[in-house]
């Protein structure tokens, strides 16, 4: 049974990673399940919190989990790992904007992957300070700067 969940955003050549100051490492987007969340709901909520700086209400979160259809996760112990294309990030951004949310980490909701990385402005207290893409071919060289769990997540199928 999953107690935590996350989404590995990838296009097959690179992956999205976030810098977690508390871990002093780059890691994936995800975290612990809350209350009666499904792993899909937790993964999407964590994405909203860590990438956009906001928490969608329970009803929208339930709708997003159904609409975005993350499929079945790869279980990494008690961690449910979903894989998704980068386009889902922009779809989540659009969905939050259309539902009246205000983006905390951007001047406006990002419309491109480059603005997702470059326009980010977070307070020092944010759980994820920076986002970047790591190319799969550079994975071994970047290994020491990321959490061991995230490294294993990237290599999992």
Task: Annotate the secondary structure layout.
Layout: E1 4-9, E2 14-20, E3 25-27, E4 29-32, H1 39-52, H2 58-68, E5 74-76, E6 79-84, H3 87-98, H4 113-118, E7 130-135, H5 139-142, H6 148-155
Parallel strand pairs: 1-6
Antiparallel strand pairs: 1-4, 2-3, 2-7, 5-6
Helix pairs in contact: 1-2
Outline:
By secondary structure, the chain is α+β, with helices and mostly antiparallel strands.
Please describe what this structure looks like.
This protein is of the alpha+beta class and about 160 residues long. It has one domain (about 5-155): Nucleoside Triphosphate Pyrophosphohydrolase, CATH 3.90.79. It is built from 6 helices and 7 strands, in the order E-E-E-E-H-H-E-E-H-H-E-H-H. The chain has helices at about 40-50, 60-70, 85-100, 115-120, 140, 150-155; strands at about 5-10, 15-20, 25, 30, 75, 80-85, 130-135. The chain has a 4-stranded mixed β-sheet with strand order 4-1-6-5. Strands 3-2-7 form a 3-stranded antiparallel β-sheet, covered by helices on one side.
Taking pLDDT < 50 over at least 5 consecutive residues as the criterion, the unreliable ranges are: none
Tell me the overall shape: globular
Could you say how many structural domains there are in total? 1
- Which CATH architecture? Alpha-Beta Complex
Helix/strand class: alpha+beta
Helix content: 25-40%
| Widest β-sheet, arrangement of strands | 4-1-6-5
What fold name goes in the CATH topology slot? Nucleoside Triphosphate Pyrophosphohydrolase
What can be said about the biggest beta sheet?
4 strands, mixed
């Amino acid at each position: 049974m999953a107690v935590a969940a996350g989404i590995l955003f990838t296009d097959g050549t690179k992956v999205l990673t976030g810098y977690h100051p508390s871990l002093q490492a780059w890691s994936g987007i995800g975290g612990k399940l809350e209350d009666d969340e499904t792993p899909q709901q937790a993964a999407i909520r964590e994405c909203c919190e860590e990438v956009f700086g906001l928490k969608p209400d329970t009803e929208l979160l339930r709708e997003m989990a159904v609409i975005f259809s993350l499929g079945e996760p790869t279980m990494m112990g008690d961690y449910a790992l979903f894989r998704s294309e980068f386009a889902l990030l922009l779809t989540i951004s659009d969905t939050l904007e259309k539902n009246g949310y205000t983006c905390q980490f951007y001047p406006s909701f990002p419309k491109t992957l480059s603005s997702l990385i470059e326009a980010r402005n977070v307070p020092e207290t944010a759980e994820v300070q920076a986002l970047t893409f790591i190319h799969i071919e550079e994975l071994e060289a970047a290994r020491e700067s990321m959490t061991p769990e995230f490294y294993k997540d990237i290599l999992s199928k």
